[in-house]
Amino acid sequence: MTDNAFDSREALTKAVDNRGTRKLDAAGLARRVAALESDNAELLRSNADLMEFASVAAHELRSPLQTIVGFAELLADEAATSTGDDGRQYLDGMRRSARRLEDLVEGLLVYARVGTSVRRREDVDCEQLAAEACENLAARVSAAGATVAWGSLPTVIGDPTELALVFHNLISNAVKYRRPAVQARVHLSAIEVEGQWRIEVDDNGVGIDERHRERVFRVFQRLPGQPADAGTGIGLAVCRRIVEGHGGRIWVEGNAQGGTRACFTVPIPVCWSPF
């Protein structure tokens, strides 16, 4: 046998071995993909069950809570003249706690609903969403002596109801967490970055320490040092579910005013037709 013949046979053997290895690798990869798909399907079912449970529980709690709040207010009104200062403080505390629990249940219901129904995809004018959010928050903005303004904001593709919640929560937070004796100023802007719209909400408020900028997006998490009635700790968690459900991301950072810049992205479709 010549050296060339031996080399050819050796090369053929290696080729056969390589094809066999590739087949084994492909079969192993297919098994891993099937296992991952099964795990993912189970995770989706589990998540859906959990969201359904939270939604049903929150819905069932609303009615008795509304009854408690109603009776607490009636009792406080009737006892306003006949109860001492301590009694009135107790009744006011009970009423505030009942209302806070009602807000928590309502927030949990909103959180459970996000992403569990069919998400609409249509043109959404972000300037209109900002205007509607300011209209809904007019009393709070006026009471805080705040100003809310925006530059040119884009039209994006998404669910208008869900995206309206994002604008409402971010503007509400910017007004709420203001500095004492400083007029709150909020400004919205947008830039296009790598095939995405990045929408920014800047304020001159108290700011968020870098250590807590991820924590604020978790359910029931509030900034350290904030009073118990400052918020439910659900709003930013809702925003994250909505933004990530639209294929974007959301985060907070500092800004030049020492306040907070809340940013979220919405992908720009390469080709989009509503039909």
Count the beta strands: 7
Percent of residues in β-strands: 15-25%
CATH superfamily of the largest domain: Histidine kinase-like ATPase, C-terminal domain
- Roughly how many Å is the radius of gyration? 27 Å
Task: Describe this entry's structure for a reader.
With 275 residues, the protein is of the alpha+beta class. It has 2 domains: 113 residues, Helix Hairpins (Orthogonal Bundle); 146 residues, Heat Shock Protein 90 (2-Layer Sandwich), CATH 3.30.565. Helices cover 55% and strands 15% of the residues. It contains 6 helices and 7 strands, in the order ααβααββαββαββ. A 5-stranded mixed sheet has the order 2-4-5-7-6. It is globular.
Protein traits:
275 residues, alpha+beta, Helix Hairpins, Heat Shock Protein 90, 2 domains, five-stranded mixed beta sheet, two-stranded antiparallel sheet, globular
Summary, kept brief:
The protein has 275 residues and is of the alpha+beta class. 55% of the residues lie in helices and 15% in strands.
SSE order and pairing:
Elements: H1 3-78, H2 85-113, E1 122-125, H3 126-136, H4 138-144, E2 147-150, E3 155-158, H5 160-176, E4 185-193, E5 196-203, H6 235-245, E6 250-254, E7 260-267
Parallel strand pairs: 2-4
Antiparallel strand pairs: 1-3, 4-5, 5-7, 6-7
Helix pairs in contact: 1-2, 3-5, 5-6
